Every structure is written in structure tokens, then in C-alpha cells.
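Lab notebook, bench 4. The sequencing result for the construct came back, and we need a structural model before the next group meeting so we can plan mutations. Quick request posted to the team channel:

Model the 3D structure of this chain.
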Amino acid sequence: MVCFAFSAKAQNATDSVKVLSSVMKSAKGSYNNKFSSKSAIYFEILGNSVSGFSINYDRIIKEYRDGYINITSGFGFGSKRNFNIPLSINYTVLFPPSNHHLEFGVGTGINFIEKDSIQNTRLLLTGRVGYKYQRPEGGFYLRAGFTPVVPLYYLKDNAYYNTLFGSKRKSKSD
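Done. Here's the predicted structure in C-alpha cell form:
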């Protein structure tokens, strides 16, 4: 997995806040950060999709002087019976006049897994800290970062999944 990271040397928590504050101040200015292309469709490896791969839709919903809020959703897939539906909301910090940005986010997802004919469902909480390359006028789009995933709820042998996807349970006589 390719990851990009922002780092700065800080001696303590106060210095860390000062470093982040100076980064945020550098993003402000007279740069016009209006994005004419507010939507993107992209392919992701790992990330919010714990299944392996996902196809996602990203939409900028609110622009600010120093960044914007965007939502992403998609469909993740791995093996034949392992898929998920991620949804996240992110805040992207702009570094004008550059196309390189810092992204923070939180999200959730539903992960459906079938193993040994048992259907399991997990509700997941995700976070995101990452790098984003995006030009205001659209075109090439790149995201890379760290996305921790925390299972919140686990439902074993989910009857709803069985009904929705037509899975058959093995009987004890099989």
C-alpha cells in the first residue's frame, strides 16, 4: 500500500498545535479555490473497503476559504461473497496555490461476509488521514492515506443477508 504523510518536528503537544496552526494559516489567502469539478469516480485499494477493492463516488458539498467538505460512498468487493458499502464525510485542507491537499475524515460501512455458508454482517467505523491531489478544474485525482477500521457491531448468520442475496444455509444433515 502506498501512503503519503505530512510530518513536522515538534517537541511537545503545544509545539504540535503551533505547527498545525501555521500550516492552516498558510492555506489562507487570496487564492481562488473554487472547484468547477465537484464530483469524481475512482477506484480504491483497501481504504474504506475492508473487502479489498472499491469503486467510489466523491462529491464536494460545501466549499470554504481554506478547504471543503466532501462525502464519499461506494461499493467494495473482494471474494465472491465478501463485499461492503462504505460511506464517509471528509474535510480537505487546501494548500494554495497548490493542487496538493491534506484530508481528514470519518465514516462508516456495512461489510457482508460469507464463510463456510455462514453469512455475517459487520458495522464498521472508519477514520482517514491522508494526502489528496486534486485540481480545481478536474482531471487526474489521487488519494493515499491511513484509514483505520474499527468493527462496531457484528451480526452472525444474518437472516436479512440470506433473504436479500439468496444464500442457502447448510442443514445439519449436509
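The beta strands are 39-45, 53-63, 67-77, 82-94, 100-115, 118-134, 141-146, 149-156.
Will bring this to the meeting.
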